[in-house]
Specification:
Elements: E1 2-6, E2 13-17, E3 25-27, E4 33-38, E5 41-45, E6 52-54, E7 61-66, H1 71-75, E8 86-88, H2 95-106, H3 111-126, H4 131-141, H5 146-153, H6 157-168, H7 172-189, H8 194-200, H9 206-217, H10 221-226
Antiparallel strand pairs: 1-2, 2-7, 3-6, 4-5, 4-7, 5-8
Helix pairs in contact: 2-3, 4-5, 4-7, 7-8, 7-9
Length: 227
């Protein structure tokens, strides 16, 4: 069973999941990074460029999914160093710091609350997100081309590329692609016809949407919507 809800940390989502044993789960790319709790351990899920197939380790999971570009400042690790990876927090932080945060989460009434409180504590230490990164996400979500996004922000394309790698884990074009897929799937799951979904999310046509699903999700659009 999976559940999620909005966090007190701006833009973040808190979630819990208990595998049912019905087979591996499929986590789609979304441009985000997560801080995870499982079996008393803390892990970091880096940004994915393709579907991550979770074999469903037994027992409950909890996580906080950070708004794109905000996790590296909170966790002190550039996003591209964790691309397509799940890593123990203890492998990223000094041992004493990792143990302290893990103990804080484990002492909370429940892991999800502990993760959210830990993220809020880190946010208070590190300060607000870089507004430029928030504007990058908004521009790409609106369908603005990468070059036009760089021009609107007053930075060069190379600077945008470099900052995107550190903040999001991949190039701005890849970020735009995975975010567009997420928007399309949200529309389709709400019952929007696929041809209309493709048009509203700026795919060339329904076949283009289907190809992106296969490449990024590793399955067909029909199977993904049925799942």
């Amino acid at each position: 069973m999976y559940a999620e809800w909005g966090s007190r940390l701006a833009g973040a989502v808190v979630w819990t999941h208990t595998p049912t044993g019905s087979g591996p789960g499929r986590v789609l790319p979304d441009g985000c990074m997560d801080l995870l709790w499982h079996d008393g351990r803390l892990l970091v899920a880096g940004p994915d460029t393709r579907a991550y197939v979770n074999e469903g380790a037994p027992g409950p999971w909890a996580g906080i999914r950070f708004y794109p570009g905000t996790a590296p400042a909170l966790l002190g690790v550039p996003a591209d160093a964790l691309r397509d990876r799940r890593v123990d927090l203890a492998d990223l932080w000094p041992a004493t710091h990792a143990r302290r945060l893990t103990a804080r989460v484990n002492a909370a009434p429940d892991p999800a609350t502990g993760l959210e409180d830990a993220a809020l504590f880190r946010a208070a230490e590190t300060g607000p997100p870089d507004p430029l990164l928030v504007r990058v996400v908004a521009a790409l979500d609106a369908g603005r081309p990468v070059a036009a996004t760089a021009d609107a922000l007053g930075i060069g394309a190379r600077t945008l590329h470099r900052r995107s790698l550190a903040a999001f884990g991949y190039r701005p074009k890849t970020l735009a692609r995975v975010r567009r897929l997420q928007r399309a799937l949200a529309l389709a799951r709400d019952g929007t016809p696929l041809a209309e979904t493709a048009a509203r999310t700026r795919y060339a046509d329904q076949a283009h949407l289907a190809r992106d699903v296969r490449e990024l999700a590793g399955t067909t659009l029909v199977r993904l919507l049925r799942g």
